[in-house]
Amino acid sequence: MEISGIISAIIIGIIIGVLGRLVVPGRQHIGVLLTIVVGIVAALIGAAIASGLGVADTNGIDWIEWLIQIGLAAVGIAALDRSRARR
User: Fold this and answer.
1) CB 75 within 8 Å of CB 45
2) Quick one: average pLDDT of 35-39?
3) Pairwise CA distance, residues 80 & 64, whole Å
């Protein structure tokens, strides 16, 4: 992966993390850095899932891929929030 690919993955991960955090209701008790990490991981896993389903490369914007990524980010943020709340 080239440096431009890494930078774009980080930027997309930030966007996905923020959107995933907005989807989860209530106040989350995780920091911005963890939100970004969850977003990056969700973006990578979501892209792999979308590619496996054959919806990753479409004409125009890949809405299904974005929805998968945002959903994964929301699940990840909710899971981290619950694990932090128990401590």
Assistant:
1) no
2) 88
3) 24
